[in-house]
Amino acid sequence: MMPGMGNREALIQGAKQCLFEKGFTRTTARDIATAAGVSLAAIGYHFGSTEALLSQALFAAVEEWGGRLSQAMAAGGDPAAIWDGVIESVRSDRAMWTVQYELVGQIDRAEQLRTFLTESQRYARSELGELFGSSAEGEEQRLLAGLYQAILGGLVMQWLIDPENAPSGADIVAALSLAARRGASEVEGDDHEGADGQG
């Protein structure tokens, strides 16, 4: 058993370790019991099933990680620094990010996971709306929050798969500015075409 812990706490810690080392779907009850240093029977006694234990360990791990990510993003003084905080989180908490992407593929098989991930995503969207769209309200803030959440997901995916070519925080800010300028230019072009057509 892990030093200074009862069986329940040791199982949660062991399950966290297995989540990060093997992932959600590849972790077995025996893996967790071995990591925790307790008997297989202890899993059923304390949690009822291996899936319930893994879920509890996941919820605890995400809560801890979420606090670290929020601090990293809030520490940024400008948008580029905020995105760099996300990138640093991928570097330091890679296993946590990887597990979450793995879980997306399991949501149709586990209702508890779907509920948890849905609530986590809504909370993250709200936090991003406050962080990036604090001057906006209502529908504008909702739209901005959704956009930044989409950017965050894509940014993390790029850093997990191909970090050598993934964008930096400054790249993201520059790209958003470029997209805004190009979008405005296209709208102006459409307006001129419409006016010419009417003339």
Mind explaining what this structure looks like?
- This protein is mostly helical and 199 residues long.
- The protein has a single domain (7-188), classed as Tetracycline Repressor, domain 2.
- 79% of the residues lie in helices and 0% in strands.
- The protein is built from nine helices and no strands.
- α5 (79-92) crosses α9 (169-198).
- The radius of gyration is 22 Å and the shape is elongated.
- The termini are far apart.
- Pfam families: TetR_C_31 (PF17940), TetR_N (PF00440).
- Residues 28-47 bind DNA.
- Keywords: DNA-binding.
- GO terms for molecular function: DNA-binding transcription factor activity; transcription cis-regulatory region binding.
- This is TetR family transcriptional regulator.
Quote the average pLDDT. Answer: 87
| Low-pLDDT residue spans | none
The name of the CATH topology is: Tetracycline Repressor, domain 2
Question: Counting H and I runs of at least 4 residues, what is the number of helices?
Answer: 9
Number of domains in the coordinates?
1
Largest sheet report: none
* Helix content bin: over 70%
- The CATH superfamily name is Tetracycline Repressor, domain 2
Coarse structural class: mainly alpha
How much of the sequence lies in strands comes to under 5%
Protein name: TetR family transcriptional regulator
GO molecular function: DNA-binding transcription factor activity; transcription cis-regulatory region binding
Domain HTH tetR-type: 5-65
InterPro entries: Homeodomain-like_sf (IPR009057), HTH-type_TetR-like_transc_reg (IPR050109), HTH_TetR (IPR001647), Tet_transcr_reg_TetR-rel_C_sf (IPR036271), TetR_C_31 (IPR041583)
